[in-house]
Every structure is written in C-alpha cells, then in structure tokens.
Amino acid sequence: MLRDDVPLPVGQVALRDERGAMSPTRVFVSALGDLYDPEPVQEPGPAPLALRTVTSVVDPPFFGNGDIGRLAVCAAVNALVVAGATPRRLALAAVVEAGLPTALLHRAAQSVREAVEEAGVRVAAVDARVVRAGEVDRLALTATGFGVFTHPPPDPGTLRPGDRILVSAPLGSHAVHVLSLRAGLGFEYHVPSDVAPLGGLVEAVRTALPPGALRAAGMVAEGGLAAVLREFAGRSGHAVRVDEAALPVPYGAREAFDVLGLDPLYAAGAGCVCLVVDPAAEAMALTALRGRRNGRLATTVGSVTPGPPGMVELRSAEGDTAPLPADGDEDGAPARLL
C-alpha cells in the first residue's frame, strides 16, 4: 500500500493508502458516513426553499484550529442562518491540486463531517476533481446550502433609530489567526480562528425575543463588521453609529492587529454574527447570546441613528464622531482578507 502522505497525482481516478482505494469524491463520502444522504427529501409544510452558495479559498487551507473543510461548511450554513432560514442539506464540490498529500485530503473530509454534524445538517451530494499542480492552491471547496424559511427573514429595511447593534464574538479572530500563520508571526497560538456554525446561536436569540424584535442579521466575514454595517445602513435608509471603545477586541489580538496593519472593523471573521434588535429586547438578546458557547463574549457596539441615510459613523473613545473610511484606511487600499 501507499503511505498516507503520498501525493495525489493529476487525473487519478482512485488513490490508495491504508484506507484502501477510493476516488477523491469517495474520500469525502466515506468520511461523512451516515451524514451523507443523497436521497431526495420532501420538507414538510409549505415553507419556501432557501439556497446559498459559498466558495471557500484560504491561504493556508489548513490552519491551527480548523481548515478549509470546516470553513466551507460553516460559511454555507451561516449564510442560510443570517438570511432567516433553517439549514437542512449541503452539496459539496472540491477542486484538489495534484500533489496534495492524501493525509490532508482525509483531514479536510473529516473536518467536513465534524462541522456538518455540529451544524445539524446532512450532505446530499459530493463531487471532487483533481487539477494540475499550480491550478489551485492545494484545495478549494464550494458548499451549497439548502434550507427552509421557517421564520420571517430579518429585514434591514425595518431598522429604526434607537435599535441596538450587537456582535456575538470578538472581531477579526479568523483574519488574525490565518494572516499570522501565513507570515510566521506566532500570534496564531494566542488568537484561534472563530470558525463555527451559528445556527443554534441565532435560533436562541430568535426564540428569546418577541416577534419582530430581531431586525437584521449579518455574518461578519470578508470586509469585516464595516461591510455588514454599510449594508444595514444602505438598506434601512438610516445611519448607524458604532462606539470604538465598545468593539470587542481581546488584549491578545490588539498587538496582532497593529503588527498586521489591520483595523478590527475591517478584519474578516468566520464565526461572528452582527444582530440589530429592538432596544427593548437588547438585554434579552445579550442573555441568549451569552448562554451559548459561541456567544459568551457578545456585546452591544452601537445603534441606529436618524443621521444621513446610509452613513456609518465611528465614535471615538474621546467622543468625536466621523464617517468610516472607504475601505479601512485613509489611502483607500482594501483592508480585506484571503
């Protein structure tokens, strides 16, 4: 038999190691086990179907407390969750670079299984293809999530002045972790990625709040919290204001942000959700968030204001207020990730 670290050659139909011979597609199907369910399922009731597709690429694709497999599953599930849907099924497509050690392919497949199980969904379809070396950075995954709208979806158009803006976790942990690992800075040992499926977290808030009190929800992903707030402000016709002193940035991450040249407002996350709630429901929402593992550090960071429509403002610790820069810095250079 071939060793587990033998590279996968281009065009190979089956790879062989201690687990036997199987195609790259079969690696994922085998790892999923009973969580792979290709049979068509008719969801009960008249609830409309929700569909979201996310393609995940990350450098490096295997990092300290996660990898691209977990990232892809969580991205698709969370995209459904913030849209107001309950995730049910996923379809996965993988592009594998020739030369990838089979151990890493098996690791990604196992991560997919663990994330799928944690999210409470099943996988309905899997496909994988091997391409020549250099045509992809080791592994890219596309996950398509299917769900149902069992609740009225949050609508940023319902935002009102006075509504509170909450975040469920520290900002930019995923960006710090991956960029530090890439650069060999060592911060990744102290700042783990926040990648996680958040269906249970958002559902806990929705259950705890009166109908209509959850106004809007958005994943803090590429573009960071700033991108979410700009979307909310643009769609609501109101302004939003965030307090710099309230932004959740752990002490261990502050130095990393400075060294990496990142602004926490623009740094990508993978397990942080931004919620806008009725001010009367703020305490209930925070209690619900903090009662879940991925929401223990949830906090209020700002509010909706009757200011200029579409404006996002930052209030400094000194009390000065100014519009956010266009892309995270005064030079206009994108402060984005991955």
Q: What features would you highlight for this structure?
A:
globular; single chain; four-stranded mixed sheet; disordered C terminus; alpha+beta; 15 strands; 25% strand; 60s Ribosomal Protein L30, Chain: A; Phosphoribosyl-aminoimidazole Synthetase, Chain A, domain 2; 2 domains; 338 residues; seven-stranded mixed sheet
How are the elements arranged and paired?
Layout: E1 15-17, E2 20-22, H1 24-32, E3 49-56, E4 62-63, E5 66-67, H2 68-82, E6 86-97, H3 102-119, E7 122-131, E8 139-148, E9 164-167, H4 173-183, H5 199-208, E10 214-219, H6 224-236, E11 239-243, H7 251-260, E12 273-277, H8 282-290, E13 299-305, E14 312-315, E15 321-323
Parallel strand pairs: 6-7, 11-14
Antiparallel strand pairs: 1-2, 3-8, 4-5, 6-8, 9-12, 9-13, 10-12, 11-13, 14-15
Describe this structure in words.
The chain is an alpha+beta fold. The chain has 2 domains: 15-148, 60s Ribosomal Protein L30, Chain: A (2-Layer Sandwich), CATH 3.30.1330.10; 156-323, Phosphoribosyl-aminoimidazole Synthetase, Chain A, domain 2. The chain is 28% helix and 25% strand. It has helices at 24-32, 68-82, 102-119, 173-183, 199-208, 224-236, 251-260, 282-290, and strands spanning 15-17, 20-22, 49-56, 62-63, 66-67, 86-97, 122-131, 139-148, 164-167, 214-219, 239-243, 273-277, 299-305, 312-315, 321-323. The chain has a 7-stranded mixed β-sheet with strand order 10-12-9-13-11-14-15. Strands 3-8-6-7 form a 4-stranded mixed β-sheet, covered by helices on one side. Helix 2 packs parallel to helix 3 (102-119), helix 4 crosses helix 7 (251-260) and helix 5 runs antiparallel to helix 8. It is globular and about 60 Å long.
